[in-house]
Amino acid sequence: MRVDGRIALDIALRLSDGLAVPAAAVMAHFVFSGAEVPSPLVRMAFGVNLLNVAVCFTVIPVYRRWWLRGFAADAVLLLLAWSAAFAAFVMYLLLSGMERSTSGFWLMLWYVIGGSMMVLSRAAVRVQLHRLRSRGLDCERVLLIGLRAPALKLHRLFIGKPEIGKRMIGYFSSGDDVPLRATAAAPSRLGGLEELTGYMERHRGEFDQVWVSLPLSGVAPVRTVLKEIDRFPVPVRLIPDISGLGMLNPGVHFTADVPMIGIRQGLVTQDYRVIKRVLDLVIAVPALILLLPLLATLAVVVKLTSVGPALFRQRRHGLGGQEFWMLKFRSMHVHQDVPGQVTQASRQDPRVTPFGAFLRRTSLDELPQLFNVIGGSMSVVGPRPHAIQHNNHYERLIERYMHRHYVKPGITGWAQVHGLRGETPDLRSMKKRVQYDIDYIRRWSPILDLRIIVLTAVKVLGQKSAY
Predict the structure, then answer these.
(1) Beta 323-329 vs 209-212: how paired, if at all?
(2) Which residues form the Bacterial sugar transferase domain (predicted)?
(3) CA–CA separation, 275 vs 273, rounded Å?
């Protein structure tokens, strides 16, 4: 019988977190106050923060399918929830007037020790999970019927990430299999469809699931296969081949017990919405507070160096194609565009003021969009919002152009850190930018957002491609 070690490890992870939080508080107290018994107010604060941790670790899905995330992504999600709990705790102390009776040094020690202990416990749990999987324990064995592109992709994923805990024993070929190159990594061929039931009869108990990977062009082949394996009581899954339908993060949904396949849906999961919003606020609010003096100084200089308002507002398309007012520091002389047309800024553009050229080159003109982020119309990271006239023009020329709006637009994005910033003088440049935007939506993770923010600071600020 297989040992489901992942369940035991999941329980161990929750218990280790439950022990690490109070243990870190006690350790921090002894470092700060020695053996002195905590005062009633400190004990009350301790209890309040434990409640905060419980709530934040539930709202932010710290434990949900953690074994499918990489260690770095798991650690970032953990620290995000841990930081949110402490931010709420500090807000409680300020509002209740308890900040004077609670040491900031104790809180900082608690935060650092607790976060370190939980990260280390995750590393230990993952080492144990790899050991189990390397010994063949807690690993589901999959029998494959047919070999379409999605099934082949899954096979390669399981080889590269054994921690997922699935292994394809082999496949039974059909006349609709994808052609394989000599170097292609594919599961072992066990025979044709006519040999399927004989194999399953001889090897009962040696596989845990059956996956059917046949084309959806006709229901008859799938129905025939399902009827043949009806007498084998193992879970059966259908892997639909929808790769030619312009997918964007597809998924399966149930409404009134009716299954539906989502072909294009962007990032609509509750996990994404919560994590993305928390990450935006954690970054944007402190950044805005720190940068307020700079924002005020830039606004004054814009007013003094040219006639017109300090801020420039323009209608842009946001999430779902809905319009919003995007804010920027004004970098051009006040002028009227031709109705229905927006001309991109170019090198030596006479409309750009001298100080505006500096703002655009350093991307400082984008800083007011922190207000858009806090207001919820933008995100820190996402596809850059284009002028509405540009969207109306390019959506007819570039396939899947409007897929960019399945997520909120961002101050910086995946395309920008790859040098696709500023003017797009030809259709090819815009196509490449859209490709990076769609790739970002497919690959999104908190780690990717943080990576883009770091790359923005290193590579984008000061680029000469924006005029």
Answers:
(1) unpaired
(2) 276-461
(3) 6
User: pTM here?
Assistant: 0.60
Of 387, 420, 404, 380, the residue nearest 288 (C-alpha)? 380
> CA quadruple 154, 156, 160, 165: dihedral positive or negative?
positive
DSSP string for 67-130: GGS-HHHHHHHHHHHHHHHHHHHHHHHHHHT-GGGS-HHHHHHHHHHHHHHHHHHHHHHHHHHH
Query: Could you write out the DSSP letters of every residue in 22-76?
Result: HHHHHHHHHHHHTTPPPPHHHHHHHHHHHHHHHHHHHHTTSSTTGGGS-HHHHHH
Written as one string, the DSSP assignment of 116-172 is: HHHHHHHHHHHHHHHHHHHTTTT-EEEEEES--HHHHHHHHHHHH-GGG-EEEEEEE
Q: Which run of H or E residues covers position 435? A: helix 427-443
Cα(286)–Cα(290) distance, integer angstroms? 6
Per DSSP (E only), the strands in 219-298 are 236-238, 251-255, 258-262
For residue 425 the two structure tokens come to 């003088």
Three-state DSSP class for residue 208: coil
Q: What is the pLDDT of residue 3?
A: 43
- Residue whose C-alpha is closest to residue 381's, from 305, 302, 296, 454: 454
- Cα separation, 264 vs 280, whole angstroms: 24
Q: Report whether 299 contacts 330 (CB < 8 A).
A: no
Predicted local distance difference test score (pLDDT) of residue 411? 92
In the DSSP assignment, the letter for residue 383 is P
Which run of H or of E encompasses 317?
A: strand 311-317
DSSP assigned state of 460: I
CA distance 74 to 80: 10
8 Å CB contact between 243 and 178: no
- Residue ranges of the chain with pLDDT lower than 70? 1-6, 34-39, 42, 98-102, 133-138, 163, 181-184, 216-220, 243-247, 250-251, 253-257, 259, 261, 263-271, 335-349, 422-425, 460-467
Residues 20-29: tens digit of each pLDDT: 888 888 888 7
- Residue 211 DSSP SS3: strand
What's the CATH superfamily of 140-244? HUPs (3.40.50.620)
Q: Where are the domains of the chain?
A: 3-135, 140-244, 270-462
